[in-house]
Specification:
elongated; 71% helix; 306 residues; mainly alpha; two-stranded antiparallel ribbon
Length: 306
C-alpha cells in the first residue's frame, strides 16, 4: 500500500506513483492510435464510413458509469471489511496479551508467557502469509522453537494450528489456578475473536467478485472506448484524440482501481499494507511485555510490497 503526504492541487495533477496510470498506459496509447486513425480517415474503415454519431454515446456512458460505480462500491466494501478485520485482530491481540500479563501467573508457576506472546506474534505473520500465499518459514523461525516450526511446516492452516496451541496454553494455566473457569471464559473470548478474524479473511480471499461481472464490465469499457472516436470525429474533428483519451483514462482507471482493491490482501500498491500492519501488531505486543521494539515499517510513496 502507498500512503502519501497531502499534495497541493498542482502536484496532484502529475502524481505517478500510487496511481494506476502505469498499468493503463498501453490501453491509452491504443485508444490514441484508434482516435488518430479515425481523424485521418474521417471515420472510415476500409473505405466505408462507420454509421455512428454522438447521440447514443451519452446514454451508454451513463449506464456504464452506473455499472462501474457498482463494481467500485463492491470492491471498496471488500477492502474496508478486510481492514476492519485486521483492526479487530490488533484489538484482540492487545487485549489477550494484557489479560495474560495481569491475570495469569509468572513463568515460575508453569506458564511460559514469552512463548505465549511469540506464538501470538507468529499467528499474525502466519495469517499474512496464508492470505498472500507466501512461505511463512522465515517469519516463523524468528518466533517459534525449531521443533514447533517443523511440526507446523507441513500444515495448510498454520494460523488455526497456532491458535489451538495458544488456547491449550491458556487452558492448562487456568486449570492450575483451581478457580480459573471464569478467567478461561474471558481469555477464550479473545481467542475466539482471533479465530473469527481468520475465518473472515479466508472468506474474503476465497470469494472473489463473480467473474461474469468483471468480464461484462471489461468488454463494455473496451468496446465503448474503441467505438467512441468514430462517433465523435464528425463533431470534434482534430480534438477527437484528446477527448477520447481523457474519457478512456477515466474508464480504464476506474476498472483498474476496482480490480486492485477487490483483492485487499494482494501486493498491488493500493492493497492493504499487511507488512506494516503485522509489524505494528508485533511492536504493540512487545511493548506491552516490556521488550525492545523492532523497527517500524511505514508504507511510503514508492512501489513496494507492504
Amino acid at each position: 500500500m502507498i500512503i502519501r503526504p497531502p499534495e497541493n492541487w498542482l502536484r496532484m495533477l502529475f502524481v505517478w506513483d500510487g496511481s494506476v496510470l502505469k498499468t493503463i498506459v498501453p490501453q491509452l496509447l491504443l485508444i490514441l492510435a484508434i482516435s488518430v486513425l479515425a481523424v485521418v480517415t474521417h471515420g472510415r474503415i476500409l473505405g466505408a464510413r462507420m454509421a455512428l454519431d454522438a447521440v447514443p454515446f451519452p446514454l451508454v456512458g451513463v449506464s456504464l458509469a452506473i455499472f462501474l460505480a457498482f463494481r467500485n462500491n463492491a470492491s471498496y466494501a471488500r477492502y474496508v471489511e478486510a481492514r476492519q478485520i485486521w483492526g479487530r485482530i490488533l484489538i484482540a491481540a492487545r487485549a489477550l496479551t494484557s489479560q495474560v500479563i495481569n491475570y495469569l501467573p509468572e513463568d515460575g508457576d508453569g506458564f511460559e508467557r514469552k512463548l505465549f506472546v511469540q506464538r501470538l506474534i507468529a499467528f499474525v505473520y502466519a495469517l499474512k502469509h496464508q492470505l498472500r500465499q507466501t512461505d511463512p518459514s522465515a517469519d516463523l523461525a524468528r518466533y517459534l522453537p525449531p521443533a514447533e516450526q517443523k511440526e507446523l511446516s507441513g500444515m495448510q492452516f498454520i494460523p488455526v494450528a497456532l491458535l489451538d496451541r495458544i488456547r491449550l496454553m491458556l487452558a492448562r494455566a487456568g486449570r492450575k489456578r483451581g478457580d480459573g473457569e471464569p478467567l478461561l471464559w474471558i481469555l477464550d473470548a479473545q481467542v475466539s475473536e482471533l479465530a473469527a478474524a481468520v475465518g473472515g479473511c479466508e472468506r474474503i480471499s476465497s470469494t472473489p467478485i463473480p467473474f461474469a461481472y468483471g468480464v461484462l464490465l471489461h468488454r463494455t469499457v473496451y468496446l465503448y472506448c474503441f467505438m467512441l472516436p468514430f462517433g465523435l470525429v464528425g463533431d470534434l474533428g482534430m480534438a477527437t484524440p484528446l477527448v477520447c483519451v481523457f474519457v478512456a483514462y477515466t474508464l480504464f482507471a476506474l476498472e483498474a482501481i476496482a480490480q486492485e482493491i477487490a483483492e485487499p490482501f494482494g501486493t498491488d500498491p493500493n492493497c492493504l499494507a499487511l507488512n506494516a500492519m503485522t509489524r505494528n501488531i508485533e511492536r504493540s505486543l512487545r511493548e506491552q511485555c516490556g521488550e525492545a521494539l523492532p523497527e517500524q515499517i511505514r508504507p511510503c510513496d514508492r512501489y513496494h510490497v507492504s
